[in-house]
Design goal:
alpha+beta, 3 domains, two-stranded antiparallel ribbon
């Protein structure tokens, strides 16, 4: 156990950010750690639960699930709190096509104390604002079909048609198959539940187009 503990300490020392790249702790990881901690030292239990040693020590001090903790607020004041609604939003409303970099440069001219660190934050705020309050964007679903790539099939229950043979009601479905690119179609009656092999036999002998 001592050897394993040393290996885990070496692993966390030289591969710290490769194993746990700053992600938030989950309830599942914490439960795993608490389970492994019953029979393993801190470093081994942390490695098995895919968390860092620092996180493991925080769990030791406060064994409360992340979902049970109150949401953590901002660690520092919002530099755009007094600027975005008062100055940026009116600019966006007046000129819908205004680029974020132009707004950023104007804000720096008006408020030199902001600095370049708010550039990305401002871009995210502008993007979020435009998603809710901006102009409607065109939504295009391009339909580009490639030969031999897609076929469409469906079934129609024919019970309502009341078709009968020799006085006996024919319980069947109508199978319809179509190639998306060429438009080739084929249909046939199906008298029972079928699978993929039967569907292949149903259209196997059909003269598929070659274009």
């Amino acid at each position: 156990m001592i050897v394993v503990d040393r290996v885990c300490r070496w692993f966390f020392r030289f591969g710290r950010n490769r194993f746990v790249p700053g992600r938030h702790l989950t309830d599942h990881q914490m439960r795993l750690y608490m389970k492994f901690r019953q029979t393993n030292p801190t470093t081994v239990a942390a490695a098995k639960a895919s968390i860092s040693i620092a996180t493991a020590y925080r769990i030791e001090k406060e064994p409360k699930l992340p979902s049970q903790k109150a949401p953590r607020g901002r660690r520092r004041t919002d530099p755009l709190a007094d600027i975005f609604d008062a100055e940026v939003v009116p600019m966006l409303q007046t000129a819908a096509g205004l680029r974020p970099i132009a707004i950023f440069e104007e804000m720096l001219r008006r408020h030199p104390e902001l600095g370049g660190g708010v550039h990305r934050t401002l871009e995210r705020r502008i993007r979020a604002w435009r998603a809710v309050h901006g102009e409607d964007q065109e939504v295009i679903f391009r339909q580009v079909q490639v030969p031999g790539r897609m076929g469409l099939s469906d079934f129609t229950d024919m019970g309502h048609a009341g078709i009968s043979i020799a006085g006996q009601l024919l319980d069947h479905r109508l199978y319809h198959f179509r190639l998306a690119y060429s438009g080739f179609e084929h249909d046939g009656a199906v008298l029972f539940e079928i699978g993929a092999p039967y569907l292949a036999d149903l259209v196997h002998d059909q003269p598929f187009p070659t274009d």
